[in-house]
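Regression check, X2X case 343:
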Amino acid sequence: MTVSRRISFFLLSVVALAIVGVMPAAATEYKEEYRLSTVLPDSFPWGAGGKRWAELIKEKSGGRINVKMYPGASLVGGDQTKEFTALRQGTIDLAVGSTINWSPQVKELNLFALPFLMPDYKAIDALTHGEVAKDLFAILASKDVVPLAWGENGFREISNSHHPIQSPEDLKGMKIRVVGSPLFIDTMTALGANPVQMSWADAQPAMATSAVDGQENPLSVFAAAKLHTVNQKYLTLWGYVADPLIFVVAKTVWDGWSPDDQKVVRDAALQAAAEEVALARKGISGGNDETLKAIEANGVSVAHLTTAQKDAFRQATRPVFEKWTKTVGDGLVAKAEAEIAKR
Ligand code: X2X
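Current build output:
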């Protein structure tokens, strides 16, 4: 290079850098549609919460962020236990997911499925509003998702087509559909039942054709899915586990938004989640048992357990609790038990 060429190259570089320097930051490139996954549709509190989140985001972002909800875990072909992996891989942009369905990938989320850990709603609230909640959100944040808010599916009560379940003996040999999380297999096996893993989509036809005898789901799900029409005639209130829901955004999607957009999405999640929890508990808690009454009015026989009856289930599943405490983490379980004790 001659001296004059060198000088002009230098000047050109200076000009180029100056231009880059004064250029405005690249504008956010929005997707035409952000895909939000849920398992249950908007006729259930869970899906209603997802729909509300999508609506609030659209409204508060002035239409910049267009979220569409895909219920039935349809973005993963109905296989709800693949939802978390799909979030990490970019097939799903946002999700309102159950701790049960994500627990195969996030082992600490099995916490909520430890049998008889949470005795009441205050116990769930203690875990989703305190240090345990913070720890779990930090774990999720290390796995390529941004957790924003806690919702609720609810206390899972067991139903079947044969007879009232009031003791572990009553469950003996019964085919019980469970979600695809190994802890549930252990719990049902410990109770003498014959657990069968399948997705929610497969569960209803399986109950209708008597391929399985029973299932366990929150009362809000039992009622909205009209499980009495698929042979579920006996329901037992044992409240053995409860699954919270978590509102998350895939990290790559989140990072593509401005701080203002992120605030909109976070605020919308907090609002939609608070509304969703209220909906999930409506007619079930706080002295209002309308949902239960509606289920009974459909001819379902409901068993309320005495403390002694509940203890028999607790004792039978205690080895499962202990085994899975190792998987969840001794420290986290101890922290959860302490938060519950001082609720
Ligand atoms: O499949 C179920 O039982 C459901 C709908 O409750 C969950 O997705 C955890």
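Comparison notes: DSSP finds 15 helices and ten strands in the chain. The first strand starts at residue 34 and ends at 37. No diff flagged against the previous build.
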